[in-house]
Design brief:
This protein is an alpha+beta fold. It is 56% helix and 8% strand.
Length: 594
């Protein structure tokens, strides 16, 4: 009876995973609760997944990845190779695929693809190459790159922890590198010989733009020396707004690294007051007040608490038809609008307050990050390219690229030489990312963690325990051993590789690895052979999902952007799947003999 109940719950979970009617993490949690309510799992067994080292390690890796992303280090690594792509379509393809393979071996596959999609589209425009020829391979090679290192993809961590937990072996940081490298080489040859011809030149449906550059702004610093008559007065007292100046904040002596946001009651201190306005107005005020004026750069108004963002006025915004002087942006949200950008019309700074806003206007606004986000939400303003939090994270973190790179390097060294536990190594790196400012603060660290992925993994780990408790694992081990065992462990490896690969086309690769890793251990014990090749086969096969657009998040990301149809993935992905599978199996057998 227990077997039927457990299999029924698992079957329903898989059906919902495939159907996509509910979020995968919700399906996993509901299934976990159902297993507890039907007494297939004890509450202690059900909670075991949430304390599993794999879950903790992946959480830390999300934070480390955020440090690489927010500092711009990952983008710099990717963009640095782009000049070498010019000259031919083959060279462009090669450089992009090598780049995505390398980056995805060190950070999230999804983050890598999201980072490179704008690069692909930009390079496609420059070279006249159809992006559809590049986007699907981009997704595929991100999956291949993930197989190269221990931290490249969650199934690798699941496999390593399964071996460590059973005290039957371990995987080093680069243990899987030869397998991933061989798969990447074969993949490149496949696309060069035939894959590129199988790719239909679809019409790109979505437009993905790179970051919108900030326009040139007139920003100046007025320096107040000790004893100056303005020191001690408030901004309300000086009334510089009447002279056409917008006060952005103060960089006070002693805390010059921090921008104190300007308010009407802000008291002026010795230091520099940052203002925006027409150059003639700024210099006139400087002469009147007897202060030194110097031009500043946009980066000088960015800080941990405040910065600049570009908003677009949509058709449903209540600001349409109203002047900035009538809007609530200054009084309610404490924002300074530094510039209004309107197609085919140049709006002078002296007219900013009196120009009625129109649909499509772009507002360059300065203020505290929280106020910028609140204003966007409540006035229906749209970020021109990315979330306020992303702008804030990048603005603060970009100066810490060197720190992020060194932290990543130290983490890799610790993982390679195993001087500390892998989970400890990852969390040392995650904490260092926050302490050095590569990740802006702890709230950003929490936001960078993909909690849905962690919940999915933590909820699926006990499902394997339920299958063991019900005897399903024993039955599967017996069936596979009897069906393939007589032919030798090699055919058992082939069977488990194919089964894992097929299931990973329709459900999460992590969930697939969590289900099959215990099965691989049990099979190895039954056959009295080393479990390492079987568990490695599970890890690699779970990451190779090329046949459907929903086999991995990266496939889904490029599906609509590339204008592909479902059959495009079958036509291009199936041959690649089979070729890479053969190469991977031979590589596993060569590296990890029974």
């Amino acid at each position: 009876m227990d077997v039927m109940v457990t299999l029924f719950i698992l079957a329903v979970m898989i059906i919902f995973f495939i159907g996509g009617w509910l979020r995968a993490d919700l399906v996993a949690l509901v299934g976990l609760v159902a297993l507890v309510l039907t007494q297939q799992l004890s509450p202690v067994e059900a909670m075991a997944g949430f304390s599993n080292p794999v879950v903790l390690m992946i959480a830390g890796l999300f934070i480390v990845g955020a440090g690489l992303f927010h500092t711009g280090l990952a983008e710099r690594l990717g963009a640095g190779l782009i000049p070498y792509a010019k000259g031919s379509e083959v060279r462009l393809f090669l450089v992009l695929m090598v780049t995505v393979t390398f980056l995805s071996s060190l950070m999230s596959n999804t983050g890598t693809v999201a980072l490179l999609i704008p690069v692909v589209l930009a390079m496609s425009r420059q070279t006249g190459t159809n992006p559809a020829k590049l986007l699907m391979p981009l997704a595929f090679f991100s999956s291949i790159g993930g197989t190269m290192t221990l931290i490249g993809t969650p199934p690798n961590l699941v496999a390593a922890e399964a071996l460590r937990g059973a005290s039957v072996g371990t995987l080093g940081f680069f243990s899987l590198l030869p397998i991933g490298f061989a798969a990447a080489v074969v993949g490149l040859l496949y696309f060069y010989v035939i894959g590129n011809r199988l790719l239909d030149a679809g019409e790109v449906r979505s437009v993905v733009v790179a970051r919108l550059p900030m326009p040139e702004l007139n920003i100046y610093a007025l320096t107040l020396t000790k004893g100056h008559p303005l020191v001690g007065k408030t901004l309300r007292d000086v009334k510089w707004s009447r002279d056409g100046l917008i006060v952005l904040g103060e960089k006070r002596k002693g805390i010059a690294h921090r921008l104190v946001t300007a308010r009407a009651d802000t008291v002026l201190y010795e230091g520099r007051v940052l203002v925006s306005g027409a150059e003639a107005d700024v210099r006139r005020v400087a002469r009147q007040e007897g202060v030194v004026v110097e031009p500043m750069e946009l980066k000088d108004v960015y800080g941990k608490e405040s910065g600049v963002a570009i908003f677009t006025v949509p058709s449903d915004s209540p600001l349409i038809g109203h002047c900035l002087s009538e809007s609530r942006l200054r009084n309610d949200y404490r924002l300074n609008v530094l510039q209004v950008i309107r197609p085919n019309e140049e709006i002078a700074m002296t007219r900013l307050k009196d120009v009625p806003l129109e649909r499509g206007d772009m507002l360059v606004a300065q203020g505290e990050w929280g106020d910028l986000e609140k204003a966007g939400d409540e006035t229906h303003l749209l970020l021109a390219n990315e979330r306020v939090t992303d702008v804030a994270n990048r603005a603060v973190s970009e100066r810490h690229q060197l720190a992020a790179g060194l932290i990543m390097l130290v983490m890799i060294v610790l993982l390679v030489f195993e001087w500390v536990d892998p989970t400890v190594a990852v969390w040392l790196a995650a904490i260092a990312m926050v302490l050095t400012g590569a990740v802006r603060h702890m709230d950003v660290a929490y936001e960078s963690v993909q909690w849905s992925s962690l919940l999915l993994i933590a909820a699926m780990i006990p499902v394997g325990t339920a299958l063991e408790n019900a005897g399903v694992m024993t039955w599967l081990v017996t069936w596979i051993s009897e069906s393939f065992g007589r032919a030798g462990p090699v055919w058992v490896l082939v069977a488990i590789f194919v089964a894992t690969m097929v299931l990973s086309q329709i459900i999460s690769n992590t969930a697939t690895a969590v289900l099959f890793a215990p099965l691989a251990l049990s099979l190895a014990a039954s056959l009295e052979v080393s479990p390492v090749p079987l568990v490695v086969a599970v890890a690699v096969a779970a990451s190779l999902a090329f046949m459907t657009p929903f086999g991995s998040p990266t496939n889904a990301m490029v599906f609509s952007i590339g204008g592909y149809r479902f059959f495009n993935f079958v036509k291009v992905g199936l041959p690649l799947q089979l070729i890479v599978a053969v190469v991977a199996i031979f590589s596993i057998l060569s590296l990890f003999p029974f």
